Amino acid sequence: MTYWGYHLIFTLPLLTALLVWNRDRLRRAHWVCMAIVCAIAFIFTTPWDNYAVWLGIWGFGDNVSLGYPAAGLATSPTNPDGLTWLGHIPFEEYSFFLIESIMVCLLAIRFLPKSKV
Questions:
Q1: Which of 7, 16, 27, 74 gives a 20 to 30 Å CA spacing to 89?
Q2: Range of the structural domain that residue 97 is part of
Q3: Pairwise CA distance, residues 76 & 85, whole Å
Q4: Packing angle, helices 28-55 and 91-111, rounded to 10
């Protein structure tokens, strides 16, 4: 299974379900807070993931990532097909950071008391 296939089967349907489940609760403040949480997750996770892959602690199998050729970013030495990655990890991993952060925020919003505003 490709990483993109994983997102299509597991993470994106769950994200969609959580968005639908929270549609009556989401306010502008929630979207702002989710953006802040996503930025923090992205900023703090990116260096550590790149460093771990660079050290060989973990990595991505052959032909599991689509990469992100349209971005014109650096090619990873761990990617033999020459697909474009950002640093040492593929586009789908960055998507995972954001999708998971949004899902956690949506679960928190769902179980917080409903806003009266």
A1: 16
A2: 3-111
A3: 6
A4: 140
Residue 18 has pLDDT above 70, yes or no: yes
pLDDT-derived band at 89 (thresholds 50, 70, 90) equals confident
Residue 48 lies in a domain: yes
* Separation of alpha carbons 74 and 32, rounded Å: 30
Query: Is residue 46 included in any domain, yes or no?
Result: yes
Per the structure, how many domains does the chain have?
A: 1
- In the chain, the amino acid numbered 85 is W
In a domain, 32, yes or no: yes
pLDDT tens per residue, range 51-62:
998 898 988 776
Least Cα distance to 91 among 117, 115, 116, 73 occurs for: 73
